[in-house]
Structure formats: C-alpha cells, structure tokens
Amino acid sequence: MKKQFIQVLTFGIFAASINGYSQNSNADTVQLSELEIISSRYDKKTPFTATNYTGKQIQERLASRDLPNVLNTSPSVYSTNQGGGAGDSRINVRGFTQRNTAIMINGVPVNDMENGWVYWSNWDGVGDATSSIQVQRGLSAVNLAVPSIGGTINVVTDPAAREAGSYIKQEMGSWNFRKTTVGFNTGLINDKFAMNGTIVKKTGDGFYDGTWTDAWAYYFGASYKLTDNDKLEMYAIGAPQRHGQNLYRQNAARYSKEYALSLEGYDPNATDYNQRGYHELGRSFNQNVSSVDPSYGGQQYFTMYNKYQQSRFQNGYIAERENYFHKPQVNLNWYHNFNSKMKLSTIAYWSGGQGGGTGTFDDRDEIGGNKFRSQDFSRYGGARYLWNDRIASNSNNVDSMYDDKMNRSNGILRNSINQQNTYGAISKLSYDINENLNVLVGIDWRTATIYHWREVRDLLGGDYFIFSGDDFATSNMKTLGDKVAYNNTNTVDWLGGYLQAKYTKNQLRAEIMAAYTNVSYSYTNEFQKDPTTGAAFRSENKGLGGYQVKGGASYDWTSTIQTFANFGLVSRTPTFDGAIRDSDGFIYADPQNETFNSIDAGAKWSSRNGKLAVSGSAYYTQWLNRTQTFSYIDQATQQEGVIYLKGMNAVHSGLELELAYKPTDKLRIDLGASAGNWYLTDNISGDYSTFNADSGRTETETYNFYVGGLKVGDAPQQQISAVVNYQFTDNFSAQLVIRHYDNFYSDYDVFSRTTEELDADGNNIQSWKVPAYTVMDLHANYTMPINMGNARLSIFAHVFNLADAIYIQDATDNSRYNSWDGDHDADDAEIFLGLPRNFNAGFRVSF
C-alpha cells in the first residue's frame, strides 16, 4: 500500500508540473440559468470537482462520434467506441462503469431504470444541440438519488443560451460516412421566447465488417417567459436508428499475427494454426456477420413504433447482431418565483422506447460450435455462422407431426425486444432564509413499465418454428413476429425526497444534503400460468429503501486561491436484478444495499492576469458490500435456492490535476492528468448449508473468491491529456488533442476468481496489463472570408488517430472463448483494437 501510494503521489507531482486544468478554467463567473440550476450544475464556488465543455468546444472536437468520445480529456474519464458500432460506446469515471455514473440531460436522469446502463445510440442528436456539458467527478452535488458514484455527466441544451440563426451542415468521413444536419435558433425574442431544433440523417459502413449505421435524430427545445415570475420550457429529443454491431472481442492474433507477437509474453504457439492456434483474419474482422447466398430472399421482421417486414440490410451477408431502437424523451419544465426569496422548479417528463437487438435462437444448444458454425478455426471465438448450411437444413425439413407441406426451422434469428414507458416528475423548492442561508427541498418520482420478449425475426429458410413454452398459447407453431423464449413485464416505481442547505458568508461556502429513496419492483411472466390463480405468474419486491448524505465546503483565501473539501455516504438500493431474478421471477428475500463512502479535497488557483489557472484534487472512495447471487439445488427439497454473496469491497483513490495556460491571444494549452489506485481489498469466503437426503446429513459448502489486492480493470489508472489550440487568424484555428494512458488492467469477472492463483511474491495474480498507448487527434476549423450576405461558410476537418497507432482500447482477461492457456498474459486476453487513422470533414453554412 505504501509503495502504491508513493507511486501515485510521485506521478501526481510530476503531472502537476506539466499538466492540469482543462476546459473549465476560464472564469466560471457567468450566472447559472434556471435550467442549469434544476440540472444541479456547479458554479465556481461549489465544493466539488468538475470539467466544463462549451457547445463550441464540443462542435470543434466531436465530429459526429458518440458523445462520450469528446469527454475523455477530463481527468479520470475514459471512453471507447468498443467494437466500433455506432452508438455502442462506453464511459468510465474514476474506474466506475456507466452503471455507477449518472447521465443527465436537461435535469432528467437517463440511466436505464432496471440496470443503470446507458445506450448512447439513443442520444445521437444530443451532441448537435448541446449548449454545454459538465463532467462532475465523484459523488457530486447532484441531489437526486442517481448512481453518481464515479461521477455525473450533465448535458444542457438551453435554447435561450443561443444566438439567433440557422445552419446546414454536411459531413463525410472514412468508411463511407455521410451526415446531414439542419438546425435553427430563434435567439431570445422580446426577452420572452426562444426556440431551437435540429434534424439529423446519418449513414455509414463502419470500419469493422457489418458495422453499418442508418439513423435519424431530432431535437426540439422552446423557452417562454409567461410573466416576470413564470417561465416554461419544453424539450423533445429522439434518435430512431439501426446499426450493425461487433460485440465479440477477439484474441490479438485474429486481428494481426505480427501485432500479437509484439506483445510482451505472447506465446508464439498461439499464432500457429497447426498447433490449434489463432488464425489471422484481419483488423476489420467481425464474428457477428458472415456471408449468405444473395439469392436467399427470406424476410426479416422487427418493430420500432411501426412493424416492418422487409429484406435484410446487406444482401450478401446476414448480421447475427443488429441493434435498432427509438427512445424519445419529452420534458416540460416550469419555473415559478413566489417572491424574491422562494422559487419552485419542476420537471415533468415522459420517455418511451421501442426496439431491440438480434441474435440466434435454436431448439438445441449451440454453445461451443456445432455444424452450423464454421469449423475452419479451432477456437470458438472465431467461429462464424454458416448461414447457407442452416438455410439449406431448414428449407428441407418437413415435420409431419406439425405440417407435411411446410418446412420446420430448427434455428432462427430472433429479436430481443425492449418496449418501455417511463413517467416522472422532479420538483425543487428553494427558499432563502436570510442572505446567507438557502434551503432546498425536493422530490423525485418515477414509474416505468418495461416489456421484454423475444420474437421470430428470420426463419432462415423454413416456414415456421416450434416453441412450446407458452402456457397460454393455442399453437406452438410460430412465424415472423411471434413471441418465443420469454415474455416478461417488469415495473419499477421510484420515490425519493431530499433536503439541502447552502450557507454562504464572505469567503465561505458550505452545503449539506440528505436524501431517501424507496423503490419497488414487480415481475410478470406472460408465458407462465400461476397454478393458484390461472393468471400470468407475478412476483414483486417492494419497499426497498436507500439513502445518501453529501456535503462540502469551499473557502476563498484570496481572489485567486480557493480550497474545498467534500464527503459522501450512499446506501444504494439494489437494481432490478438484485431484487428479482429476471429469468424466473425468484424474489431475493433480503437484498442488500451496496454502500459507498467518499472524501474529496482540493484547491484552485488562477493568476491575476487570467493567463494561467490550475486545479488539483485528491479523492478516496470505498465501494462496500458489493453483492452477487448464484444458485444451488437444495438436496432435501430438490428446489433451486439462491446464495446472496456479500462482502466484496473495493477502494478507488487518486489524484487529479488540470491546468489551462494562455500565453498569447492566439495560443491556449489545456492539460489534464490523473493517477488512480483502484483495487479490491480482500479475499472473501462464506458457507452455506444444505440437507443431503441420501446421506441424511446437513452438508456445508464453502465458497471462496481470491480477489484481495487485485486492481480494478476496464479503465487506465493513469492518464495524461493535452489540448493545444492555436488561432492562426480570426477565421482559422486548429487543435491538437493528445491522450496517453497507462497502468491499464484488463477487465475480468471478479466472481470467476474461485481458484487461488499466486505470483512469485505470494499475491493474487493480476489480470493482464494492457500496454500503455498514446493517441493524437487533429481538428481544424476555417470560416471563409467571403461576402455571402447574411450567410457564413465554414469548413472543418478532423483526423483521428493521427499517427495511425495500433493500440488496445478494451480487453478482457482469461477469456472464456479466446484464452490460449489461462495464465493471465497477452495470449489469454480478448481485445478490441482502437480504430486506425480516419477522418471526418465537411462544411457548415450559417444564416
């Protein structure tokens, strides 16, 4: 521990000398708008850490990538596009995944209400309409009971914050990328009304085989000041889209034998095909697509607010994995001033959602590869479907038990459907007790109904498919669009309340917040009859409570020096899967809350001439009582039981620094650095007892997980970023963005460490460490100095991975499908490589 702390501290001191304070350095002195206040945005006195990105900065760097990919110049923030599918990106903050990072758009949390995940393809139009983004790290000042353990990404699209005008933007890029955007802003009319909107159309082939995209996006926002004391805002956003996916990581040798052998510790035998090694398939290899005879004309069925039955997207291929979804969200915000001391802010919102993802479904187990998977490769990870063989089998398979004139499909493509409706309201009442003390009381209510089922997408040459698992069905013969596998309806009911107090006097700012949340879940299996009632089987787990307490203080020692500290304690209610087993509705009778304790402290300094600003902070977060469930068979009753594993603990600590330096009017340098020390604290073990009917004795089983000292994987624990912006002329600017990552342990399942594996020092063997890497991006923007009346023409270009580096951005240790010998080194990891050098360019005409 001492050695690790010294390493982190040394890195932090080094980083402070060359790196630092990113986008939020230029004097956050602007007064927050009503929307920013209800969205729990920071001002410069708030005692928490944050990085601000303006709308201009986002437009200059995003270049139609997924929104997380512009946020990774913030310390401790790591994002990747994973397998390259449009909208399939992920983001980690301080070593926590999206499930523990709150994403809020205009004050509304958009994390999935069942599991906390965020699907960025649903928010494709946000980047084009964003006024600003604030990345709040740590527990943050957000007073809603959202999963803001790693941090909060707070997106605002304020129409009143934009100048009047309209624009048309056309983009093109690598791999046949095309995007057209039309937008408008009315500006503030008569100090009362403002409106803005965008419509987007996007297509492209993607780098990996089959990662095409075909998407629309829309955004509409309006603001109206009814009276001096009342203001209304309305927002609507959505992104109906379809895209091919590349979901399966591969052994490095499948992408490139040369690159695999360059990795330290990679066994050369793993690349020898004669030794049952991994066959090189190229960097664009995607296991989720494979060829099919173009003459096959089978129809595919899917639903996305409309029912579609049409030909597949690619004639010569069938995609095993495709995602399609449309998740609209509509907000109505009302701000009311009772008087100069009391204000009410309320958001009422609805979010829908229809769509799903595709895959295979068989009446036999296909795991491990059967005759309908390619046998050219010895390892399952590279095996692709032999669609022609499957189609031939299905189209010549008469089953006289059902119909002697039609062919029965033994294997099909299915859709996994998610349809949902969420309604919610967030209301905050602010009252100034006196000039120093303000109190805020609020409620957060949400209710969601989510429908999950699978349905027949493509019969792959047959005429029908047999599914006998529906107790209510009149026929087991299923055709396109019929439901198979499962058919569940889940509900989530959420009610939270909080009280917050803020005290400001002279140089001191202090605040504290306490909140309580109560959550109830229900599960209905629409395929299974309840033996008692004859209705669909239903189970529920109600009244699960959680709480959080957060507070902090900042002090301005001088006009240029500020220090701050904050703390937090969160007892988080279980997610749906932690309360009810989604496979069969089994109720976990006593689900345990996971708890998080966190402390942050730091300082900010800016020079009097405004040319230099520095911010640094240290954090320490404990993740306690991480839980997991697994099943066993009770020998006495032969009934399946559940063991609720408790006690998996982790620590996430580190240093973060940001610096902004503007030596001249033309040059600005933003630097950022972070050094983390994220690890699991102890091995854990436990016992459970079952009665063995054969022996007549109670037998005790022990479970052990050897995880003590293991580093948290899935994100680099050290990172440095630099943004160098040079304004060559009033019309031309360029930015160079450099990011360096190190101390990057591959992801792994902590609950798979059931066997003790020790290194030479007697410690648990770490997961494979991904090689450090550096990636550079170049952005250029030029406004043409020509007279076009009220119109302005701008051109832009972006080059990503400028040096065409080959690097690993995602990795899983000791892969089930792609591990060579299971000893936690390079030949046992499955990976996604970063994209090769690619570009985006286009023009924008503004009016």
TL;DR of this structure?
This protein is mostly beta strands. It has eight helices and 46 strands.
For the largest beta-sheet, the strand count, sense and barrel status come to: 26 strands, antiparallel
Which structural class matches the secondary elements? mainly beta
* Total strand segments: 46
* Helical content class: under 10%
Low-confidence stretches: 1-30, 365-369
Q: Give the termini separation.
A: 59 Å
Strand content: over 45%
- The count of helical stretches stands at 8
Overall mean pLDDT stands at 89
Gross geometry: globular
Please compute the radius of gyration using only Cα atoms. Answer: 28 Å
Structural write-up:
- With 847 residues, the protein is mostly beta strands.
- Helices cover 6% and strands 51% of the residues.
- It is globular and about 80 Å long.
Entry keywords:
8 helices, mainly beta, disordered N terminus, globular, five-stranded mixed β-sheet
How are the SSEs ordered, and which strands pair?
Layout: H1 2-18, H2 34-38, E1 49-54, H3 55-61, E2 77-80, E3 90-93, E4 101-105, E5 108-109, H4 126-129, E6 132-137, E7 151-156, E8 165-173, E9 177-185, E10 193-204, E11 213-227, E12 230-238, E13 241-244, E14 250-251, H5 252-255, H6 257-262, E15 289-291, E16 300-303, E17 307-310, E18 317-319, E19 322-326, E20 329-337, E21 342-351, E22 354-362, H7 387-394, E23 398-399, E24 403-409, E25 411-432, E26 437-458, E27 464-466, E28 477-478, E29 483-505, E30 508-529, E31 536-556, E32 561-572, H8 576-579, E33 594-606, E34 612-633, E35 640-661, E36 667-680, E37 684-692, E38 697-705, E39 716-727, E40 732-745, E41 769-770, E42 773-783, E43 792-800, E44 808-812, E45 830-833, E46 838-846
Parallel strand pairs: 4-7, 24-27
Antiparallel strand pairs: 1-6, 2-3, 4-5, 6-7, 8-9, 8-46, 9-10, 10-11, 11-12, 11-13, 12-20, 13-19, 14-45, 15-18, 16-17, 19-22, 20-21, 21-25, 22-25, 23-24, 25-26, 26-29, 27-28, 29-30, 30-31, 31-32, 32-33, 33-34, 34-35, 35-36, 36-39, 37-38, 39-40, 40-41, 40-42, 42-43, 43-46, 44-45
